[in-house]
UniProtKB/TrEMBL annotation:
Source organism, top-level taxon: Bacteria
GO MF terms held by the record: catalytic activity
Pfam families in the record: dCMP_cyt_deam_1
InterPro entries reported for this sequence: CMP_dCMP_dom (IPR002125), Cytidine_deaminase-like (IPR016193)
Higher taxonomy: Bacteria, Bacillati, Actinomycetota, Actinomycetes, Streptosporangiales
Name of the protein in its database record: Nucleoside deaminase
Length: 142
């Protein structure tokens, strides 16, 4: 990791501290151009916004998809204080960002949490009704 990358990752950690100081979970992220210029910064605001999706990584992925052309997005790097969760990782993939650099891994984060605090996925059933469900999708991706 270069000194510039370390600087950007440390800024993401500062944003995480700011999120916590503001009453939110301690996560922060920024999006940088190929030359290291910071394009946008975000902090977690899930509690103050009362929005479970207000993760900084998701907010930046949405911003990039809306504001950057595909070539510019592909040349960016997201620096984030923690490895993106599944929701954010999928949004990052769909937004076409080029790279993600994170400080804490998901496993390291889990090690910092009290036992039993992990989210539990509800039971899911499916697939079902393929013939009906496939009708509105057929031909869309061609």
């Amino acid at each position: 990791m270069t000194r510039d990358e370390e600087r950007l990752l440390r800024r993401a950690i500062e944003l995480a501290a700011q999120a916590r100081a503001g009453g939110n979970p301690p996560f922060g992220s920024l999006l940088a151009a190929q030359d290291g210029t910071v394009l946008a910064e975000e902090r977690n605001s899930t509690l103050t916004d009362r929005d479970i999706t207000a993760h900084p990584e998701l907010k930046l992925a949405r911003w990039a998809a809306r504001e950057l052309d595909p070539a510019t997005a592909a040349a960016t790097t997201m620096y984030t204080s923690c490895q993106p969760c599944g929701m954010c990782a999928e949004a990052i993939a769909r937004s076409g960002l080029g790279r993600v650099v994170y400080a804490l891994s998901g496993a390291q984060l889990d090690g910092l949490k009290p036992p039993g605090s992990a989210f539990v996925a509800p039971p899911a059933e499916g697939p079902a009704l393929y013939d009906e469900a496939s009708l509105p999708v057929k031909g869309y991706y061609t």
